[in-house]
Design a protein that fits this description.
The chain is α/β, with parallel strands linked by helices. The chain is built from 9 helices and 8 strands. It has a 5-stranded parallel beta sheet, with helices on both faces. Helix 1 packs across helix 9, helix 4 packs parallel to helix 5 and helix 6 crosses helix 7. The two termini are about 20 Å apart. The relative contact order is 0.18. It binds adenosine monophosphate. Adenosine monophosphate binds next to helix 2 and helix 3.
């Protein structure tokens, strides 16, 4: 099953993508995670992506398309993938279509996780992330709070630079201008699956699963 997750930053698509990947036994590919890993390791790709990321802007299409093409060509993607954070522009969506077509494949679903904007700002500016494993916590929503060490792996908890409120607002503007048009793009291709993301994570997961397996919630 070949799936892309759409939806604004903070919609919970990363969390859901990880769970879907586990459920269907296919890889979860997050372009944001790939960039952050490269920034951390100080690679050439990381050096080029960093300035855009810190400003809350999108990294240029050609850089992103290349890393996704490379990742999708690996053996573990043969039975499918959950793409999280890609495509983010119509040009990236077209490139994805072409790279799949070259392998005689196509996309099955574009899941759009919808959440009202005020909830997004609260979710992202309250988000704290583990430096080691990428697990997310939230100062507003987690009863136990994020703490100083990750409950999954013991890694250090920090706030991503691009989760600061001003940057969050810029990321949302980028989303509206460049990524939201993908909703109509995938609707016209008959691939759009709309899901309400303003609900507890288990409910959102159930709704996505229903949409993918054809029992309602499709848009
Ligand atoms: P994310 O974790 O998906 O919110 O991504 C973090 C940052 O990485 C974004 O704000 C962008 O600067 C960059 N990024 C990730 N994926 C893409 C993409 N598909 N196109 C352009 N930039 C991206």
């Amino acid at each position: 099953m070949n799936v892309v997750m759409l939806g604004p930053p903070g919609a919970g698509k990363g969390t859901q993508a990880v769970r879907l990947a586990g459920l269907y036994g296919i890889p979860h590919i997050s372009t944001g995670d790939i960039f952050r890993e490269n920034v951390r390791e100080g690679t050439e790709l990381g050096r080029r992506a960093r300035e855009y990321m810190e400003r809350g802007e999108l990294v240029p299409d050609e850089l992103v398309i290349e890393i996704v093409a490379d990742r999708l060509s690996r053996e573990d993607c043969r039975s499918g993938f959950i793409l999280d954070g890609f495509p983010r522009t119509v040009a990236q969506a077209e490139a994805l279509k072409d790279m799949l077509a070259e392998r005689g494949r196509s996309l099955d679903h574009a899941v759009n996780v919808e959440v009202p904007e005020e909830v997004l700002v609260k979710r992202i500016s309250g988000r704290r992330t583990c430096r080691e494993c990428g697990a997310n916590y939230n100062v507003h929503f987690d009863e136990e709070g994020p703490g100083e060490a990750c409950r999954e792996c013991g890694g250090e908890i920090y706030q991503r630079e691009d989760d600061l409120e001003e940057t969050v607002r810029r990321r949302l503007r980028e989303y509206r201008a460049k990524t939201a048009p993908l909703i109509d793009h995938y609707r016209s291709e008959g691939l759009l699956r709309q899901v309400d993301g303003n609900a507890p994570p288990d409910e959102v997961l159930r709704a996505i699963k229903n949409a993918l397996e054809g029992s309602g919630a499709a848009g």
